[in-house]
Amino acid sequence: MKHKDWSPENSKWKAALDRGLDIKPKENDNILYLGASSGTTVKQISKLTRGIVFAVENSPEMAIELVKLAEKSKNIAPIFSDARDIEFLKKSIFGKRMNILFQDIPSVDQVEILTKASTLLDSEGKILFSLKTQSISQKPSKETFEKVEKMLGERFRIISKISLEPYHKKHYFFVLRKQAY
Ligand SMILES: C[S@@+](CC[C@H](N)C(=O)[O-])C[C@H]1O[C@@H](n2cnc3c(N)ncnc32)[C@H](O)[C@@H]1O
Asked: Distance between CA 127 and CA 62 in Å, rounded?
């Protein structure tokens, strides 16, 4: 698959960035990126940091594209895995400190996947979460958003939340931090 241009229409990270959220990686940030697809966004994000982008994808077709992309890049590490397999992810990041966790996996258990993966994030790290309400429920989008917001609020500190309409229908974007205990 040919890599598309990076635009708010084909990337939730880019859409949220254009909306003014403080989500640009810092110079040396390591990133755990769940739901990498063929790497359209991974490619752009990898240029913004000298850290490593660990790009997780479970579709073989997409993972092959990711591997090809990684061959041309210095700091993309593709991981062919189900993002739910925390033990495998833990081994694959080689004990590196993760500064950003990003998740773009439209799935009914999106919040659970995020919660488990957040254990791999540094305590000072940032969590970026792209929510597709329709993957969770067929109820009105706002209703699902509010339900998910409540769940997230019980597990994390919510820094920002925005709708990604009209770029991405029924999508919201959250910036979260781990709770300080
Ligand atoms: C919306 S796309 C991601 C688009 C990508 N973030 C971008 O901006 O270019 C979601 C991706 O998550 C992958 N995916 C779905 N379930 C997954 C899982 N359990 N573990 C890892 N990847 C998964 C899909 O195969 C798909 O490529």
From this structure: 23
